Every structure is written in C-alpha cells, then in structure tokens.
Amino acid sequence: MAETKSSTGHDEAPPSEDGAKPGADISFPYDRMTVEQFRRRFPRARWNDARKAWFVPGRTASRRIGRWLAEMEVEADAHADAKGRDAFAFDPIDSPYLELGKAGFRIRTPYSKTVVDELREVPFSRWDGDLKIWHVPFRSYEELRRRWPEIEAAACRNEPEERRRRAEERKGTEQDVRSKLRSAERKRHRYPLQSDDLPPIGRPVVTAYGIVVFTEISGELVDPNVVTDFYAGVTEDHVWGYWRVPTLEELVRTWPAKTPPVQDAEWWLPAIEELRPARRTARSREARNRAQAQ
C-alpha cells in the first residue's frame, strides 16, 4: 500500500531510533477507522515521519503485519460482496444467461469473442473450463451491470438459431461470396511481404492475421491483380511468406517489443498488450486439444 496521508498527534520517532530495532514498516492510505484498527492490533507501533510509515517492533512483525493485512482484505471483500448483493437485489439483471449462486453470479452464453473480452474486463471474473461457465463475485456487480447490455447482445447474436438465420440470409449474396473467398485465402496460410523488409523466420510477429510465425519466404512474386481484394497496398515488389499459428511456449518465450511499430508497417514485433490475449488464446487452444486427445 502507498501512504497518502498520515494522522496527526501520533508519537513520532526520530529516523535513527527504529533503525537498530528488529521490526517492520507498514504504510497505508490514511483512514481514521483503519488507523484505529491498526493501533488496537499493534499498540506498540509508532509513526515514523521521516519514512512516512508505521514501525512495528518485534522479530515477528512482518508475519503479524501480513496476517493483519490478509484479515483486512477478507473483511473488505465481504463488505464489497454484501454491497454488490444489495445492488443486485435493488436493480437485478434479468437474463437467461445469468444465474445467481452462493458466492456470486454464474454466466453461461454461446461462444462470442465480444462476451469473452467484456467478461475479462470485469474484476475478479474467472472462467470454469469444466462447467463451461464464467464466475463473477457479488463485489463486481456494478461493472458487470455496466457491461451487461453488450454481453447479452453478443450472446443473442451467437445463438445457433440466430447464426443459421443470418447464414441463410447471406447465401448467394456478394457478401457471402467475398466471405468465402477471404476464408479460402486465409486457409492457404500465406501473406504478402515487402521484398526489402522481410520478417524473421521462426519468431512470433504481428500481421493483419494477428500474431503468426513465418516458416518460409518462398520468393514467389505476388500478383496484385489477383489478391488486391484481400491485401490492400500490395505491389509487384511483394513476395509470399508462409505462416503458422504460434505455440504457447513460443509466445511465452517472446520478449515484448518496447517501441511501437512504424506507420503502415506490414509486420512488427508484438508488444505486451498483443502478447497477453494471444497467450490466453493459445493456452485455451492447447488445453482444448489435450482434452480432445484424452
């Protein structure tokens, strides 16, 4: 915790007084009730103005402080859960995708990247791979309530019946034809690269397809007239590179880039913001593959 304000009127020890004594320092944002609880738990503690921290004497001070902080965290969580439970009772979410549990909410929806992205932003949410549901504690209700319209709309869009209906409506349309052509092009696992700016082989890089690993640069020139609908800005100076999806181990071993990519770059080294979701996806994919292999 970071000290933001100290109380007045407490005993203040000079900087040298506590230096030779066994003990530990602790600092936390000033709150009258928290200070009172702390003083009752540690009556021998003294405020050190030079270090802006409380000094708790004793060889076991660190362990005692750790236990107190853990108890305070549990108490704060219990209070936040009670507050969230009351908020739900006053303004409930009525949805077939949400169930009320003992410790919070259970959420089960059709798969949707939007749903996953939204629920990952809800504090303390977690995915249960065995039950195929999300758990969200009561303390996170306000954030869940704020994000719920987007979550429910995305879940409804991805119901099997709704997806089939949209597919039937698209059949034979120009959009359907273009979608099938894009899907077929992606399945070729090739990507146009500027011949004088080639990515490293065997290392995760970012492209329009996300993070991939290039396995080969064929040297075959790209025909812009054939693929211009799929890759904007392709010229006769581009060559084909062939790629695959990176493994979790490769993504974990990849050091995040410290500098942003240059403007209009066709590939670049991934930053931590790009590696994190890719690692989560790879972890889920490999866990799913292991489960299917059993």
Automatic annotation (TrEMBL):
Residues 158-184 have a biased composition (Basic and acidic residues). Residues 1-28, 157-189 are annotated as: Disordered. This is HARP domain-containing protein. The lineage of its organism: Bacteria, Pseudomonadati, Pseudomonadota, Alphaproteobacteria, Hyphomicrobiales.
